[in-house]
Amino acid sequence: MKRTDKRTRLLAAAEALLARKRMHEITLDEVVKAAHTGKGTVYLHFKDKEDLFQQVPEACCEKLFCALDAVAKGRQPFAAKLDAAWDTLLAFHERRRTLFSVIESQQEYSSHLKCDMRRRINASQGRIWEGVTRILGQGAAARMVRADIPPEVLARYMNSLARMFARHFAAHRGRAEQKAFLKRFFAAGAFETNHTRLHSRRTE
Predict the structure, then answer these.
(1) Which of 108, 118, 149, 150 is the most exposed place for a label (fewest CB within 10 A)?
(2) What is the DSSP letter of 104?
(3) What is the mean pLDDT of residues 87-98?
(4) CATH superfamily of 50-203
(5) For residue range 4-50, what is the model confidence (pLDDT) as tens digits?
(6) Does domain 1-46 have CATH number 1.10.10.60?
């Protein structure tokens, strides 16, 4: 088995355990048992248990960034990209409803990790924002996204909205309704701006 495969299995095992228990309650023995590997393998990829668990959100967010980047590079119309971005974000947060809350709560338990953990979590979230910004930036360039709010700010809002929907509303609202709201909000003013510009050209 490749070393990268073992690392992936260790991260997946750690993520699954974090969904049920706090970091300080999980032992390396539990992780390696769930990953079907040896304890020595952990130290081939991570400095210690804390490093392993801190890399869990980083790995998750990097996968999400790659998925969003693939959407951005696609040839489909922007409206389809917006739908795909929302589906991708929502699926990510639905699957990991408790992950970030559990990891962030560890800052209270491990005060000496607080600064480094916060920095790494922020960097991980930054990759998500970067992926969404690329997509919304394309919409802005095509004048299909509202111009009164920068794409990078809209990207943060969209990610926060997906996380909120995953936690509280996903089971009560259909995807069609969610996407309709997204298009109304993110395209607010875009149609009117295009219509006004087109009308101005016709009257010149």
Answers:
(1) 108
(2) H
(3) 87
(4) Tetracycline Repressor, domain 2 (1.10.357.10)
(5) 689 999 999 999 998 888 888 899 999 999 999 999 999 999 999 88
(6) yes
